[in-house]
Design brief:
- 64% of the residues lie in helices and 0% in strands.
- The longest helix has 59 residues.
- The radius of gyration is 28 Å and the shape is rod-shaped.
- The N and C termini lie far apart (90 Å).
């Protein structure tokens, strides 16, 4: 097995080994699915989010060193059943919730990326506008000096 690089990846392993649906994890912890996808998966997990996770899944406290550093192994003797008992036709048992959650997370991540790109472009435009404004101001100053010199020489 390849070495897991991030705490988030280890959390996903914990969920998988304990048959906890990602949708339930996101709902119970209040953490957005986008934190565990794409670029978000490689970013650090904040202490506040880690605290939320440990509060909802206190059984992870026994595996804290593994969770944070990746050293050691996830204890297999843990049995976690966070899913509530629902009827077979119940939406909570349906994989569609996971698919919808994944789709929404992907859409949010794309929106967030585009929003950041637009903000960057807007800041670049603002910088260019300031440079042009300064250049025009300097040009007007030089033109005024030329006009004044021309007026003085004509007199």
């Amino acid at each position: 097995m390849d070495k897991i690089q991030t705490t988030k990846e280890r959390i996903l392993i914990f969920l998988e080994k304990n048959n906890i649906k990602k949708e339930s994890f996101y709902r119970e912890t209040g953490i957005a699915a986008s934190n565990f996808k794409g670029v978000g998966l490689k970013s650090d997990l904040g202490v506040d989010k880690l605290a939320k996770i440990l509060k909802v899944y206190p059984e992870l406290n026994d595996n804290l060193i593994w969770l944070i550093t990746g050293e050691g192994e996830l204890e297999n003797n843990m049995v976690v059943q966070k899913e509530k008992d629902h009827q077979p036709g119940d939406l909570y048992n349906s994989d569609i919730n996971d698919k919808i959650g994944d789709l929404l997370a992907n859409l949010f991540a794309q929106y967030n990326t585009q929003d950041k790109s637009l903000m960057f472009l807007q800041s670049q435009i603002n910088k260019i506008e300031k440079k042009y404004s300064k250049a025009i101001s300097e040009q007007n100053k030089i033109l005024n000096e030329i006009l004044l010199a021309t007026k003085l020489s004509a007199e």
